[in-house]
Amino acid sequence: MAPQIHVIHENSEWSAPLFAQLEARGLPYQDWFIHERTLDLQEVPPQGVFYNRMSASSHTRGHRYAPELTAGILTWLEANGRTVWNGTRALQLELSKIDQAMTFGRYGIPTPRTIAAVGKAQILEAAQKMSGPFITKHNRAGKGLGVRLFYSVEGLVQHLESPAFEPSVDGITLIQQYIKAPSPFITRMEFIGQRFHYAVRVDTSEGFELCPADACNIGDLACPATPEVGTKNKFELIPDFDHPLIPSVQRLLEEQRIFVAGVEFIVDAEGRPYVYDLNTNTNYNSGAETRAGGQKTGMGRLAEALGGALAGLR
Ligand SMILES: Nc1ncnc2c1ncn2[C@@H]1O[C@H](COP(=O)(O)OP(=O)(O)O)[C@@H](O)[C@H]1O
Ligand SMILES: [Mg+2]
């Protein structure tokens, strides 16, 4: 069998735009949808380039153990010397915001103050150490799981006792300093083949400003795969974006062997950027890409880059 591009994922809806771009270029690919399957450790993997886009939120789609199985598959591929884009190291980062924060720190990339906690009493203990408003989030998240804003420890006490409290799938809740942006948006930088591709500005006003409650659920508002509803365009490509964070993030991606990533940051009132999320499974907002002229589609660039990696094998 000739070498192919093997796409490891657990969300067919999110992966369809990539398959369409691979097909448009006549690139041969295999769809490795991961839910329940066997992995024969004696077998030799097929030839080709493997691209892993396993998601940390797979359990919300009923694929509770897809990341664990994917970790096994990636280990097997790497042990067999296969070319893997976003291999075992990328998956570790995808599944742990603690790991993300510590890794950002190693590259001098500023992150919000964060305390990890297991246990409700410990979550409160962590919150008491915060000097201002804080956010709760899941260590293993994606799609804004468990993201809530609190202005007081009392608000959190109520929340922890209410049925709305949902623990992280890995049991670890993060308490994180809330970064208040002077205008409500975050920036997401997309990297493909370890190179900066473009940045999008994501409107978060409906996440914070419209919510009168102490506890405010952002939901998956800042998830690029979320269809835009109503007339408001939440995602906009930023023309000619450049930022001093780009070289540090590129160095991180190179050294950690991550090929594809979306990295999010917020800028506070003093103009300081805080990076708080590294998505190794990234989606691109096609509405924003079309409004920007449709020249720089993320999935198009990704298909091209994977095609280049495949050609390099031959
Ligand atoms: N420390 C923070 N300060 C302010 N807003 C935040 C903070 N952390 C997260 N948010 C908001 O919540 C959204 C989801 O949080 P994020 O850490 O990206 O989780 P996920 O991995 O689930 O996307 C962000 O895009 C941002 O709008
Ligand atoms: Mg995010």
Condensed summary:
With 314 residues, this protein is of the alpha+beta class.
Query: How helix-rich are the residues, as a percent range?
Result: 25-40%
Order of helices and strands: EHEEHEHHEHEEHEEEHEEHEEHH
Bound molecules: adenosine-5'-diphosphate, magnesium ion
CATH architecture of the domain at 4-94 and 299-313: 3-Layer(aba) Sandwich
Oligomer: single chain
- Which strand order does the major sheet show? 5-8-6-7-11
- Residue runs with pLDDT of under 50 for 5 or more positions: 208-217
> What is the structural class?
alpha+beta
Gyration radius over CA: 20 Å
Number of helices: 10
CATH class designation of the domain at 4-94 and 299-313: Alpha Beta
- Tally of extended strands? 14
Average pLDDT score? 92
Strand content: 15-25%
The CATH topology of the domain at 4-94 and 299-313 corresponds to Rossmann fold
The end-to-end span amounts to 13 Å
Q: Outline the biggest β-sheet.
A: 5 strands, antiparallel
Anisotropy-based shape: globular
